[in-house]
Design a protein that fits this description.
alpha+beta, Beta-lactamase, 2 domains, 5-stranded antiparallel β-sheet, two-stranded antiparallel ribbon, 43% helix, 20% strand, signal, cell shape, hydrolase
Length: 315
């Protein structure tokens, strides 16, 4: 082969080699960046209810969605609004009036817990005020002058649904008006456009939300403050005021706490709201979120909804 042709082929081979090396570098660099970003999104605690779903994304697992059997009629429920869907892929098993406004009752305490996490923190000592003890209800057995860590008082509020504990947080943060402003500001940040809070306890019927909005709040808590739901799985816990020597046991009043598939949640009850529920369960090897508003019997409605879902879908 003469010299010009040899030079031509050598130049071509050099160009091909350079292009291959460049593409290999870019591919490796891109994969490395993707893995680094994904590792940052994984939760730092194994207790997070989001841990499994984020890990599944990392392995690019493809899930098979259930198939609806349309010959199965809708369930007969007493709730005004119903939402049941998969937590990981948001598959809607059943939605009914999910944008209907309804009094929150003690479901408002979930937003109260978020405000405490973000505006007060764990390490503060919260005094039990006279106004707090005078609030409707005696759940938690709090006494005027007692002082609790904010973490312990949160557990008291969530497990026993103590209105006194909720009002004590209000007083610590500057009163009802100040506390409520933080609640409603966070609601707007989360896109809860059909929600309005009037107090930390949820006693007022003027505190209202929707199943759709409460789902937004639930997902935010799972992502940012999973301890809130982790604590609600406790059957009971022993607590002692920081300025006292006597301890007491606080029991979880949630009727689902003994269910094997219960992953955490909150109930709310009032004459105006009837019975509300926001809870997470394991079901058919997946995790589901259930929201019931205005139920006349949330335990029965929850059971019927799960049974209906099992019969109405092919998994």
């Amino acid at each position: 082969m003469n010299t010009p042709w040899r030079a031509f082929f050598l130049t071509g081979a050099l160009i091909v080699t350079l292009l291959f090396t460049r593409n290999l570098y870019l591919t490796n660099h891109s994969v490395g960046s993707s893995q680094s970003f994904l590792s940052k999104t994984l939760p730092q605690t194994q207790e997070s209810l989001y841990a499994a779903s984020l890990t599944d994304v990392a392995h690019e697992r493809v899930s098979v969605l259930p198939i609806r059997k349309w010959d199965v009629l809708d369930p007969a429920l007493s709730s005004e609004a119903v939402l049941l869907q998969s937590l990981d892929d948001s598959f809607p098993f059943y939605h009914q009036e999910t944008y209907k406004s309804w009094p929150t009752a003690s479901l408002a305490k979930l937003m109260t817990a978020v405000v405490v996490f973000e505006q007060i923190g764990f390490s503060k000592n919260i005094p039990i005020t006279e106004r707090a003890v005078a609030t409707e209800g005696v759940a938690g057995g709090l006494q005027i002058g007692e002082i609790y860590s904010s973490e312990d008082l949160l557990k008291i509020m969530l497990l026993s649904s103590s209105n006194d504990a909720a009002v004590a947080f209000e007083d610590f943060l500057g009163g009802t008006e100040m506390f409520v402003s933080f609640m409603n500001k966070k609601a707007m940040e989360l896109g809860m456009t059909r929600t309005m809070f009037q107090g930390a306890s949820g006693l007022s019927n003027l505190s209202f939300s929707t199943a759709s909005d409460m789902l937004r709040l639930a997902k935010y808590i799972l992502q940012e403050h999973p301890d809130i739901f982790n604590w609600t799985r406790l059957h009971n816990f022993l607590v002692q005021p920081t300025n006292g020597t006597e301890s007491k046991t606080i029991y979880n009043i949630n009727p689902f706490v003994s269910d094997e598939g219960f992953l955490g949640g909150k109930t709310g009850t009032s004459p105006g709201a009837r019975e509300n529920l926001l809870a997470f369960f394991t079901f058919q090897d997946t995790r589901v979120v259930m929201i019931l508003l205005g139920s006349r019997n949330r335990v029965l409605d929850a059971k019927r909804l799960m049974e209906w879902t099992e019969n109405a879908y092919i998994f």
